[in-house]
Structures are given as structure tokens and as C-alpha cells.
Amino acid sequence: MDRIESSENRVQLILPGDSEFNATLSQLPPAWETQVNAKGCFGFVPDAAAGGVLRAVDNFEFQDYVLGGEYEQHQQNLYGDMYIPPDELEWVEDDFKNVEEFYIDW
Amino acid sequence: MGSQSKYNKKELVFVPIKIGTTTEGVEAGAVNYAFWTNIPSPARTALGQVPITTPENPPLGTVLASNFPKPRRASKRDALRYTSSFASTALLRQLKIAGWRITKPRITKPPLHIEATRPTSFVHTVYVTFRSIKYAWQLPKVTITNLTQATVTALGISLATPGDFDELCFGAQAPKPPKASVTIADGVDNSKTLSTFYDPSVTLPTGWTESKAPKIAFN
Question: What number is the ipTM of this complex?
């Protein structure tokens, strides 16, 4: 994973659209172990309201994230006017009911 | 007891995908999209995922987790398991028949900033050809002005045209072309250092040096 580079005479601003931008956002938040332990964690999701910074969620919060519209909001934030809404539902409630094993690649 | 592969370290795979939807609505351009997965191996086979066995020297024409293009997502609910991953373009029809739900990425056309369609934009979409992909990014127009168009061309950077519509890859974690930088002195206390990706097959113009090595390995 790339890291932000800076030196005495060179400071980089990593703006949206820069190839380093996503790599920077996908860094785990500070003290993530504590957050994970506190939640019995499912994983991390990019927070739509906080500009895509990762936050820890438990299983129920994850369902709410993808079914409740925040996931879509984040996609919209990412792609701006290039965003095209999906023509069919990507996630449905039945995907999560009584499931014991989740495998999701991003 | 189901599969235990969720506890495994994720492994590198790729799926062959189409790059974009052309203005005529046709899917065109092809690239291999690489990502990490831990889904059970029967699902990997079904989705056409090919293991990358040499991440230090990945196959040409393969991009690692680019922002664009993105593959189609295939999802399936089995008894106690939910699987959602990326699928090879060639297999979409048979996957639907087999009960997978196929969904499109949210962006099906490249974020193209070119004079013809977005004349007021502050950036211009440019690319260099590297490892058999067109590695694209948005170059601020002010950088082009500072460098001059002739230098931009000499660095092997091409301005994107509508003809590149279905070939550009944005924001790939790898491969990344090398970067070169130059310091332009403009009177006393007024020098500026500029840096940009460049095509390593060109000879760098006078004053330019490589400031960051290319990234080829997927790791």
C-alpha cells in the first residue's frame, strides 16, 4: 500500500482524482483494534458523510449501510456526475437473513 | 460446518473484463482486473477468476484495483452463505442462468475531461501507455501551461481523445508508470519543481530526472 510522502522541500496535497487519493482513504483509522473490539466487528465501511474515511461497523450496522442507502451515497460521492444509479438492486434483505458466512470482495 | 476459507489470507486473482461502454452503448476495450479474494474455490471457478501466481511480475494488460474500470459484481445467496465478488465478462450469461445476481459498476464510462466535451474543466485527461494499459489521470491544465505542450509530448504523455474512450484505466494501484521531476528556475527565489508520470520508453528531456520508480509488482 502506498503511503503519503513528504520531505522538507516537497509536500504533496492528495486531492480527489489523484491516483494516491483512494490509497490514502483506505488506510485503517488510528486505534482501529479498539474500535473492532468494541463492536464485535463485521468490518470497515467508507463513511459517506465523512468523505469516505473508514469506520467500524457490526453486522447489523453493515446491513443498514448497504440497504439503507449510505453505500449508494458513497458511490455517488466517489464518481460525481459520472455516477449512474444501478438498474437493479445490488443488495436485498434476503442476502443477510440467517447467513453464517459472508464473502464480499470490494 | 461450511467453508473455512474466510479465515484464509486473501489471494490475488484477476477476471477479464470490458473497460467501458462506448457512445453507441457497446461494451468495448478489454483489460484484466486484479483484486484480492477469499471466496471458496468452487465460486472462484464459476466466476472465472484466475490466480496470479507471479505478483512480482503480473501479466501484461492487468490492472490492480483501479477506480475505473470496475468489473460486474456477481452475488449469490446459498443456504447459510452469501458470496459477492467480481465476474469475468465472458461468463455473465451463464452465471445469471446459474442463479447469480449480476450488477453493474456505478461508473460505466471513463471520467473523461477533454476540450470537446468539457471545455471549462481545470484538468485534462492524459495517459501514458505502460505495461500494455493506458494509465490515465487528470493533469491540471496549469501544469501543461507551465511545462509547455512540447515537453508534455516529449515525456510520452498523450492527451486523451474521444478515440481513447474505451481504453483508459484510472487510479490503478499497479501498474503505475515512473514519475519524473524538473526544477524550473525563474529568476531569484522563484523556482518551481514540477513532477508527473511519464513513459519510461522515452528519453527524458534536459533537466528532468526520474523522481519515483514505477510500480509493477502487485503486493
Answer: 0.75
Q: What is the pLDDT of residues A8-50, one digit of tens each?
A: 455 567 776 665 676 677 777 788 778 777 777 667 888 888 8
Sign of CA dihedral A70, A75, A77, A78: positive
pTM above 0.80, yes or no: yes
> Contact B83/B40 with Cβ under 8 angstroms?
yes
Using pLDDT thresholds of 50, 70 and 90, give the confidence band for residue A1. very low
Q: Is the dihedral of CA B187, B193, B196, B202 positive or negative?
A: positive
Nearest to B157 by CA among B174, B191, B180: B180
Q: Of B85, B103, B170, which has the smallest distance from its Cβ to A90's Cβ?
A: B103
Interface of A with B in 12-41 (CB under 8 A): 17-19, 21-23
Q: Which one-letter amino acid corresponds to residue A2?
A: D
H/E element, B159: strand B158-159
Does A73 contact chain B (CB < 8 Å)?
A: no
Which residue in the set B37, B107, B193 is minimally distant from A79, CB to CB?
A: B107
**Contact yes or no for B58/B218 (Cβ under 8 A):** yes
Strand partners, B87: B72
By CA distance, what is A24's nearest residue in B?
B173
Interface contact B109-A82, CB threshold 8 A? yes
Task: Locate A49 and state its grid cell.
Answer: 458523510
- H or E, element range at A70: helix A70-79
Determine whether A70 is exposed, middle or buried from the number of CB atoms within 10 Å of its CB (0-12, 13-18, 19+).
Answer: middle
